[in-house]
Every structure is written in structure tokens, then in C-alpha cells.
Design brief:
single chain, 27 helices, 0% strand
Length: 532
């Protein structure tokens, strides 16, 4: 690519390519560039450490901690690429964001230790790559502690900073508070907040942690007072702070107060408005207040259109709280949206159901045993281009069949045949039973000949015996006799184990049924004779 673009092979051009790929998030290409550098013997780099560091930065931004750590270890193999403080910052931040605490401590050990590999240092006798971790590295440790919920790591960081004679910054204290919040040590969050107040003016991020702590403690009024105190100090809150306060209010059933926070969010927010409303709805539903969630859902339509995620959350919220009719009304509204979509741009303002929406409604219909609604939703699901999923849909289809809704079974069979998919053995068995119940033995056997797989235990003798016993009330005796006759004709022309197992099981079943009938009739005659 570089040769075709007539780009000169130099450290600067290679570095720029890595940086550009990093901004584009194309981390795989970044690794390919690194591999190309290592494979080219004619290419001699004089700033290889800078190229590797840029690659580490790109991998970190792409959230690829494993690849970044592998590249970091490669840097340790050469003196020219041995990590400097910038490289340590890159790998530390990446591992911290990913929560890789053990690997991060290993990096700190490497940082403080002499190289394990012996390098030729004739011209640099005093070369010593050992470094002490700085505040960026320690803050990365705190980030990892938040992810891993390791409060001991926070005290280790404070101890290390004390030994180096450094005073923790407000950012460090904020991260320590986050660690304590993640670990559920709310009293320590308040203690560290007081320490911050003694040395610094707390920023919006620190107040955000405090608000979340008060939210966890159920102290909604105190959270409001904390934000008011921040504003009185002239500190401009960020969107995350007001968003968390609004969710706190929603959890306490105070959705009208929460909506007032949106005006403050809009002044500093980068998130789309629909994301904010969706978060508030989620907070209401998590606290069991579905009415407030529905109120916010309807209120948001004045300012923005709910997206699919919002509608699915509201749909699930209605169903989880036993509000089936409300969920059905919302689902029908989503279906009606598809009728008004004429152009590609319409998808930006109109929402149509996805497979999650259909599965959510299907599960609810099956639980409520609303078979008519189940059939309607299932038919629409197939019409929208979604497919039958055996793990999700098989059981409800069989339950619907037992409740008298054979249309679902027929619909599924047609769908599987049209899409060229192999029907599950239980579907094959059920279709066989339906045709046998209708007295069409030839059609029933055709399902086994064309779709039954001998490997499946569903078509063993034991399984067929179980099917015949469980469905005995559905089959007429003369139909079973005809089934045995038709089966023997098939077997005479072509061996089929599934059909053979069926015929043998059917013979035993008919024989046992007739024997039991004769015994019952004999007992009746004996009883009547005794009475005479």
C-alpha cells in the first residue's frame, strides 16, 4: 500500500499511518503494520519505540488489552523499543480500563526492575530504563480496582503515593471514592469526600460519585442538596451528574422532579435526548414503578421519538408487571408503524419491532395462554422475515397445538420447508400425529420417510411407544391397523429404521390395547352373569 502510494519508508510515515489507523479504530491493520516492520530486514527504524507506543495507544482506544499487552512484551525484547514513561502510560491506562489488575501490577514490577534481557550498552553505559510509577499509572490501578471491586488496591495506591511524598490529586481521590462506591463501602466514600473538601474544591465528577452513593443509600433529598451545594459554589455540573440525579429521583418515585433535570442536561449533554429518557424509564421500571415509566415514555414523545431500545424496555416493563393489554397496545403500535414507512428516511422516526420484541410478546402470550394472540404475533414474526428458533419457539408451538391451535404447527412446517431448513424431530413427530389423527396414514408416514433421522432418539422404539400411549385418545384403532399395513408396504420396498421402529411399536400397542379391552369385556360379562 505504501509502495503504490509512493510513500517513502520512514519512521515518520509509519508513525503517521499507525496514528491514522488508530483514529479510525482499525486495530487489526495497526498490528499488520507492526508485523510488517518486524518482517522487513531492509527497513531500519530509528524511532521504533515511538511507533510501538503509537500502536499501544491505538490498541488502548480500541479496547484491545490482550493485544496491547502482547505488543508491550515484544517491546521488552529490544533496547531500541524498550518502554519509556509514555509507553507505560499507554499500557497502564488500557489495562486499567479493562480491569486487568494482576497484569497491571506485573507492568509496575517491570517498570521498577532492570531488563531481564541483557542488552549491549557499550555506548550507553549509564543506561537505566527503570522508572517509578507516577500518578497516571496509579490512577490506572484505581480504575482497575473499580472494575474488580478491590478496595484494598485503593489503600495500596494511597500508601505508595505517601511513600513517594506525593499528595493525592482531586482526580485520585475521586477514583478512590469510585472504588469504595463499587465495593459498597459508602461510609468511606463520605470520609474521602471530606478529605477532598479540606484540600481541594470538589469537581463535578466527585459530586457525581457522591450522588450515586446517596442514591444507593436511599438518601434522595441529600443527593438533591449535594447538587444544590455544588451549584452554589459555582461548579458547572456535567451531563452524567444530572443524569444520575434524575435516575435517583425516578427510583424514588419522583419522576416529575427528574424531568426538570433534563433542561440542565441539555445544556451540557452530548448524548441524544432519547438515550436520557430511556435511562429514566429504566430506572423507574427497576424500582417497580411502571406507571412513572409509562408517564415518561408518553412525555418524551413531545420532544423526541422513542427508539427501538426504548420501546422494547417499555414492552418488557409492562409484561413484567402483569400489564398485558398495555404491552399488546404498544406492540400493535409498532406493527402499524411499518405500514407508514415508504422511504429509508422514515426509519429515523418510525420504529418497527425486532426479533427481541416478537420473542418478548410470544413468551408473554404463552405464559398467559392467549393462543389467539400467540398465533397472530407468530405469524407477524415470520412475515417480518424473522425465523423459527427451536430453543425459543418449539415448546410454545407444541403447547399451542395441545390447546387446539394446530395452525401454528402447520405455519411452522411451511416456513421450515420454504426456507430449506431441517425440521426438529419433535415437529416431525407432531406433524405425524396430526396427519394420523386425520386418518391420512400415507401422509403421516411421508414425514418419517423424508424428514426422520435415525440418529435421533425421538424415532426409537421406546420413544414411539411413549408417543402412542400419550396420544392414544387421538387415534382410531382401524387407523392404527392401516398404519401398520402401509408401513409394511413401505418397508418391503425400502428399509427405513424410523418406520420399522414405528411399525413394531404400533403392533405392540394395538395388541396390548386389544388384550386389555378383552379383559375388561370379560369382567363385565362375569359381573352381569353373577347378577342374573
Amino acid at each position: 500500500m505504501m509502495r503504490s502510494a509512493q510513500i517513502r519508508f520512514s519512521d515518520h510515515s509509519t508513525l503517521r499511518i499507525v496514528q491514522i489507523l488508530g483514529k479510525l479504530g482499525n486495530w487489526r491493520r495497526v498490528l499488520q503494520v507492526i508485523e510488517w516492520i518486524q518482517a522487513r530486514e531492509r527497513y531500519k527504524s530509528h524511532r521504533i519505540r515511538h511507533v510501538y507506543t503509537a500502536a499501544l495507544d491505538a490498541l488502548g482506544k480500541a479496547r484491545r488489552p490482550v493485544e496491547a499487552l502482547n505488543l508491550f512484551h515484544r517491546m521488552l525484547d529490544q533496547m531500541d523499543s524498550y518502554p519509556d514513561i509514555v509507553a507505560y502510560h499507554c499500557i497502564a491506562v488500557t489495562l486499567g480500563q479493562a480491569g486487568h489488575l494482576k497484569e497491571l501490577f506485573d507492568v509496575i514490577d517491570i517498570m521498577r526492575s532492570p531488563p531481564k534481557k541483557k542488552f549491549k550498552t557499550e555506548f550507553l553505559e549509564k543506561w537505566d530504563p527503570r522508572l517509578e510509577p507516577d500518578v497516571i499509572v496509579y490512577n490506572s490501578v484505581l480504575n482497575a480496582c473499580v472494575r474488580r471491586e478491590k478496595w484494598e488496591g485503593a489503600f495500596w495506591v494511597l500508601q505508595q503515593l505517601g511513600q513517594q511524598g506525593q499528595h493525592p490529586s482531586s482526580t485520585t481521590y475521586g477514583l478512590v471514592m469510585e472504588v469504595m462506591l463499587a465495593c459498597g463501602k459508602y461510609n468511606l466514600v463520605h470520609d474521602f469526600f471530606k478529605k477532598v473538601q479540606k484540600s481541594y474544591i470538589p469537581n463535578a465528577l466527585i459530586y457525581k460519585v457522591l450522588v450515586n452513593t446517596l442514591w444507593k443509600e436511599g438518601k434522595t433529598d441529600e443527593a438533591i442538596m449535594a447538587v444544590e451545594e455544588m451549584e452554589n459554589r459555582g461548579i458547572v455540573g456535567n451531563a452524567g451528574l444530572y443524569y444520575d440525579l434524575a435516575r435517583c429521583l425516578c427510583s424514588a418515585g419522583r419522576c416529575h422532579e427528574a424531568l426538570k433535570q433534563i433542561d440542565k442536561m441539555c445544556k451540557v449533554a452530548n448524548k441524544p435526548l432519547v438515550v436520557t429518557y430511556t435511562g429514566l424509564i429504566q430506572a423507574c421500571l427497576e424500582s417497580g414503578d411502571v406507571e412513572s415509566g409509562a408517564y415518561i415514555f408518553n412525555h418524551m414523545k413531545k420532544f423526541c421519538s422513542p427508539n427501538l431500545v426504548t420501546c422494547n424496555i417499555m414492552l418488557k416493563g409492562f409484561l413484567d408487571n402483569g400489564m398485558f393489554e398495555e404491552a399488546k397496545h404498544l406492540f400493535i403500535m409498532l406493527l402499524e408503524n411499518s405500514n407508514s414507512i415508504k422511504h429509508e428516511e422514515d426509519y429515523k422516526v418510525k420504529v418497527i419491532p425486532d426479533i427481541y420484541s416478537f420473542n418478548t410478546m410470544l413468551d408473554a402470550c404463552a405464559i398467559e395462554k392467549k393462543w389467539e394472540d400467540l398465533e397472530s404475533v407468530y405469524e407477524q414474526m415470520l412475515r417480518y422475515g424473522h425465523h423459527f428458533n427451536g430453543k425459543r419457539h418449539l415448546r410454545m408451538i407444541l403447547d399451542a397445538r395441545r390447546a387446539g391451535k394446530e395452525e401454528l404447527l402447520e405455519m411452522t412446517w411451511e416456513h421450515l420447508v420454504e426456507t430449506g431448513r431441517d425440521p426438529p424431530p419433535l415437529i416431525v413427530t407432531e406433524m405425524f400425529c396430526v396427519r394420523l389423527e386425520q386418518g391420512d396414514c400415507a401422509a403421516a408416514l411421508s414425514y418419517l420417510v423424508n424428514f426422520a433421522y435415525v440418529e435421533s432418539q425421538v424415532f426409537s422404539r421406546k420413544s414411539w411407544s411413549k408417543v402412542l400411549v400419550q396420544n392414544a385418545h387421538r387415534f382410531e384403532e382401524h387407523v392404527l391397523d392401516e398404519l401398520v399395513r402401509e408401513g409394511n408396504i413401505l418397508l418391503a420396498g425400502n428399509e427405513n429404521l424410523a418406520v420399522r421402529h414405528l411399525v413394531e411399536s404400533c403392533k405392540e400397542f394395538v395388541r396390548a390395547k386389544r388384550s386389555s379391552t378383552e379383559v375388561v369385556v370379560g369382567r363385565i360379562f362375569q359381573t352381569e352373569a353373577a347378577l342374573v
